[in-house]
Amino acid sequence: MSLGALITKSRTDARLSIEDLAKLTNIPATLLRDMENDNFKKCGGETYARGHLRNMAAKLGVEERIFLDLFETEVTAPAKPIRELLNENNVTMPYQEPKRISWKVLAAGSAAALVLFAGTQIIFSNMDSSSDPEIIATTSATPSNSASESAAPSVAASPEIVGGVNVELVASRGTTWLYATNENGEVLFSGQVRQGATKTFNAAKQVNLRVGNAGGVDISVNGRDVGSVGANREVVNLTYNAE
């Protein structure tokens, strides 16, 4: 569900017309129609657009971060080439044209190597003819058990899931926007979950979800499927407590 569609959904859920919302927010009705059609170019800039979204969220009883996160994702996110995005995250080094080595440098290096090899052979031949060979007995040391044990790499224990309630949401049948908090009101996630993606949340006592497309997701709590949570494009609030 796009930001404009979510604004329309929230307004109709509040049983308000565009004219009613315009009176409550002092935002022109024509501008509200543009925003519900995902056109934010007439807001006067991104700062004013965010202000309008906060104003509407307060009047419609919606958490403002839901509107603002979708705005950042759909409107203000810059389109960059994949190589530039990877460079920003230090995933790959910037591409550089490989340097070509001159054939003269290769020839000079090869000649120097031949001269050095010939000189080394002459020196070792003279040393062998002027001195008697000396046999040196060597004994290979056998590593002790303690040394072997200390050299063996340690295996880190797998981290255990901490908390009383574990909620897994899978966007099986469509993309949805999602807002998740724990029992203390701390935000666990806010934004879009693309179709096919999975989000997992863990809390000591409680996980609260606000789902924008209830019919498009599957939810399991502590490994158990909870079944259907709503219809397509239905906005639902869900709370799961520790058992």
- Main beta sheet: 4 strands, antiparallel
Q: What structural class do you assign from the helix and strand content?
A: alpha+beta
Shape: elongated
The percent of residues in helical segments reads 25-40%
Strand arrangement within the widest β-sheet reads 4-1-6-7
- Tally of helical runs: 8
Question: Measured on Cα atoms, how large is the radius of gyration?
Answer: 34 Å
* Integer average pLDDT: 79
Q: Regions with pLDDT < 50 over 5+ consecutive residues? A: 129-161
* Distance from first to last alpha carbon: 33 Å
Q: What is the H/E string? A: HHHHHHHHEEEEEEEE
Strand content: 15-25%
Tell me what the structure shows:
The protein has 243 residues and is an alpha+beta fold. Among the domains are: 3-76, Orthogonal Bundle (434 Repressor (Amino-terminal Domain)); 165-241. 40% of the residues lie in helices and 18% in strands. The chain has helices at 3-13, 18-25, 29-36, 46-60, 64-76, 82-88, 103-130, 145-151; strands at residues 165-170, 176-182, 187-193, 198-203, 206-211, 218-221, 224-225, 236-241. A 4-stranded antiparallel beta sheet has the order 4-1-6-7, with no helix packed on it. It has a 4-stranded antiparallel beta sheet with strand order 3-2-5-8, with helices on one face. Helix 4 (46-60) packs antiparallel against helix 5 (64-76).
Please render the helix and strand layout as text:
Layout: H1 3-13, H2 18-25, H3 29-36, H4 46-60, H5 64-76, H6 82-88, H7 103-130, H8 145-151, E1 165-170, E2 176-182, E3 187-193, E4 198-203, E5 206-211, E6 218-221, E7 224-225, E8 236-241
Antiparallel strand pairs: 1-4, 1-6, 2-3, 2-5, 5-8, 6-7
